Each structure stands twice: as C-alpha cells, then as structure tokens.
Amino acid sequence: MEQCPIALPFDRPGPFDPPRALAGLREQAPMTPLSFVDGHVGWLATGYEAARTVLADPRFSARRELMHVPLDLGFAHEIAGGPPEAGEFLRMDPPEHTRYRRLLIAQFTARRLKQLEPRIAEVTQTCLDRMEAAGSPVDLVREFALPVPSRVICELFGVPYARLEEFQNHLGTMVDTDAPGEEAMEAYTAFLEFLAGLIADKRKAPGEDFFSGLVDSGELSDEELTNIGFILFGAGFETTANMLGLGTFALLSHPDQLALLRGDPSLIDGAVEELLRHLTIIHFGPLRAALEDVEVEGALVRKGQVVVVSLPAANRDPKRFTDPERLDITGSAQGHLTFGYGPHQCLGQQLARIEMRIAFPALLERFPTLRLACAPEDVPTKDMMIVHGVKKLPVAW
Ligand code: HEM
Description:
The protein has 16 helices and ten strands. By secondary structure, it is an alpha+beta fold. The protein has a single domain (21-396), classed as CATH 1.10.630.10. A five-stranded mixed sheet has the order 1-2-8-5-3. Strands 4-10-9 form a three-stranded antiparallel sheet. It has a two-stranded antiparallel ribbon with strand order 6-7. Helix 9 packs across helix 11 (222-236) and helix 14 (268-279) packs across helix 16 (349-366). The longest helix is centred in the N-terminal third of the chain and has 25 residues, at 110-134. It starts with 20 loop residues before the first helix and ends with a strand. Protoporphyrin IX containing FE is lined by residues 62, 89-90, 101, 156, 231-232, 235-236, 239-240, 243, 281-282, 286, 338-340, 344, 346-348, 351-352. One of its GO terms (molecular function) is iron ion binding. Keywords: Heme, Iron, Metal-binding, Monooxygenase, Oxidoreductase.
C-alpha cells in the first residue's frame, strides 16, 4: 500500500539539530512521499545514498519551471516559476549549466584563492578590532559573522573601497530578517543597480578580481553577469555568515569541543568540516524534478515529481556517519553533503572553508574568555528560512 504523504517537518528540537521527525522518517525509509502547498505529491529524501543519487543523476533536473514548493514561506518565486533567466545557472541543467559553470571555475583559481587568504586574515582582524572596541557584550552576528563574509564578497567583486559601505548596506538589509518587506525590496533594487554600475566600470577598466575576470572573459552579457553576480552574493554571503554565527554558538555551547580546539589549533580543518556537517545550514532543499520515472533506493519517483533533498537528514544518516547526532571535531565528517553533490555542488566551497579556517581561530585567539551573554534558549534562530542560523548572538568576554 502507498504511504500517505507527509508535510515537510519543522519541529526543530534545538538550535543545532534538524527537525526531530526527520530521523524517524529516515529510519522507516530513505525516501518518503511528501505533500506540497499546491497539492503536488513528491518526495523527501532523508537517506545519505538517496540524497546523493537524486543530486547526481542526470534524470533529475534543477530547472525552475519544473519545481513545486513544499511549504510557502514567501520565497516561492525564488524556487518555482518560469524558466531560468540568462545566467541563472543554479536553476539550469547541463549543458546550459555547464557553460556557466566552466566560466566561473576558470575564475575561482587556486592562485586567486591564495591571494585572497591574506586579505581575509586582514578583514577578520579589522572586524575583531571593531568588536573589541565596541566592548563586551556585543552582538557577534553584527560585529563579526556578517561583516567578515560581506567584506570578502567585496574583495571577490572588486568593489572599490569608497563604495564598500554602500555595498555592505545593501547586502545587510537584504538578509536582515527583521527589515520590512519594502526595505528589503528597495535594497534588492539598489543592489542590482549597483551591480550594473560595477559591470560597466569593469568593462571599461577590469581589475584583478574574480568578477573582473568574468566580465573580461567577453562571453557574458550584462544580463547574465547581473544574474551571476546575484547568485554569487546569495550563495556566498549569507551562507558563510550563518556558519560563522551558528558555528560560534555551537562551539560556545559545547565546552569540551571548544577546549579541544583551543588546546590544539591544528584541529581547525576537521572542526570546520564537522561544524559544516553537524549544522548543515541549508535546511530547505535542494529541490530536483524527475525528467522520467526513476527508482531511488526502492522508491519509484514518477516523471514530473519533485524531490526535496534534506541535506541535514542525509548528514546525520547513521548508515554513513558514526555517532552522527554528536558534534565531534575529531570525528570524520568527510563526505558530508553540506555543499551539495553532483553538477551543482557548491562552487565557493574552498572559499567558504578558507574563511572559516581563518575566522574561527582568530576569534578564539582574540577573546580567550569568549562566552554567551544570554541564556542559550534566548538566542533567536532563523527557523523558517532556507538557510538556518542565528539572528543575533550576544557574547561577552
Ligand atoms: C558555508 C557556506 C556555504 C554553504 C553551506 C553552501 C552550500 C551550497 C549548496 C548546498 C549548493 C548546491 C545547491 C544545489 O544543488 O541546488 C551550493 C551551490 C553554490 N554555491 Fe555555495 N555554499 C556556501 C558558500 C558559498 C560561497 C562562499 C560561494 C561563492 C562566493 C558559493 C557559491 C555557490 C554557487 C555559485 C553555487 C551554484 C553552483 C551551481 O549551480 O553549479 N557558495 N552552495
């Protein structure tokens, strides 16, 4: 007998854990029928292998016009709707997607990332100086988790220093969950205008930065560049910011793990991977639509059905990870799916890793007595967002 479709669960037991119901579902079967807000019935992938299959199999599409949304949080238009616009490669399939992906990979060179490292270290120290000057207690999100990646994005885009603040203000308002809708919309429009101006400047005088490289490739129209710029911002800024905020909260809430890391800074690479796995901040999707009937781990996904891939559930699959519910910075988080898998796997993952490997140790070194400045349950979290994180993190030292 066919199982009754469930609604996407959202009963998160704590700030670091995915919805409680996911583990029970995964135990029953790696794929569960899922009901969507428009009446569509698709699937929820909770098993590690099922998630990888859906993300890697070319019979599953990322195209926007094929999507349905499993719950309405006001961002349905970002996920489902008409076909992708020029340059919106996150919602395209190969070979269209591959063309953009190649152009971007050509700019994310090891040399450019290496060059960014000292700049990221500088930016981090500047933010820490400000945080220290502001004095204990402060909101770590405002002083550290947001400004570090926002300045790194400025480096990536080659935003001139004179316009840094303007750019950062647009970014800040767009991701501010408490900003009224109109303000966020205005910031969005202003950001697009800002990007258009930046593209025009770089066409005239390209610099050494990543975005100049894309403009200078001569292969992309202004429309494509604007959409790519927007994806880079969306994918690269809020994600890393949330990892820095939620990651610090997790470390401060696990004193044994924090002590281990403070005692042996060489553990940082493993700690970053484990924080990525344990927190799996992309809590909603990726989504894929079946282009034909496909069997996934015993479930028959019919042509046209949409699968919500639960990365948090996959990253806690006991069939793949030992003791997956525990945060263990010395454990093996290798193979986690936090950056996705398959053709759309995160393009900025090395950059994100570099940022975290620099930022966490710098923070801990600067403030040896860093602690939460409120009760853990009073830290406001972004529960109903695509990207999970903390809205504020009051800390003291
Ligand atoms: C901790 C931080 C980050 C996380 C957790 C993360 C996660 C992800 C995930 C799960 C995907 C796959 C989406 C899908 O399959 O539909 C993705 C794609 C992508 N990410 Fe990231 N990301 C992070 C940081 C970054 C950074 C710093 C950048 C660049 C500045 C970036 C750029 C991208 C781009 C361009 C894609 C689309 C790739 C494609 O469609 O081919 N990400 N990211």
